[in-house]
Design a protein that fits this description.
There is one protein chain. This protein is of the alpha+beta class. The chain has one domain (2-59): Alpha-Beta Plaits (2-Layer Sandwich). The protein is 20% helix and 32% strand. The protein contains two helices and five strands; from the N terminus they run E-H-E-E-E-H-E. The strands form two sheets. A three-stranded antiparallel sheet has the order 4-1-5, covered by helices on one side. Strands 2-3 form a two-stranded antiparallel ribbon. The longest helix has 7 residues, at 44-50. The radius of gyration is 10 Å and the shape is globular. Bound molecules: iron/sulfur cluster. Iron/sulfur cluster binds next to helix 1. Residues 6, 11-17, 25, 32, 51-53, 55-56 line the site of iron/sulfur cluster.
Length: 60
């Protein structure tokens, strides 16, 4: 299991991560929040690569 993190300073609130992985990412006040600690079911590496500003990191 890995842990996703969003850098709030960098996130522009585009919604891509929420669209790809709504279990883990939710937009709130124009920024993506990590709402589930565990990133298990999906391949979040894809979400990391899809973020246009590189705000997402996954801790292994
Ligand atoms: S994909 Fe990146 S910039 Fe877009 S909402 Fe998610 S963390 Fe923010």
């Amino acid at each position: 299991m890995s842990k996703a993190k969003v850098n709030q300073e960098v996130c522009i609130g585009c919604g891509t991560c929420e669209a790809l992985c709504p279990n883990v990412f939710k937009l709130k006040d124009g920024k993506a929040q990590v709402v589930a600690e565990e990133c298990g079911d999906c391949n979040c590496q894809e979400v990391v690569e899809s973020c246009p500003v590189g705000a997402i990191t996954i801790e292994k």
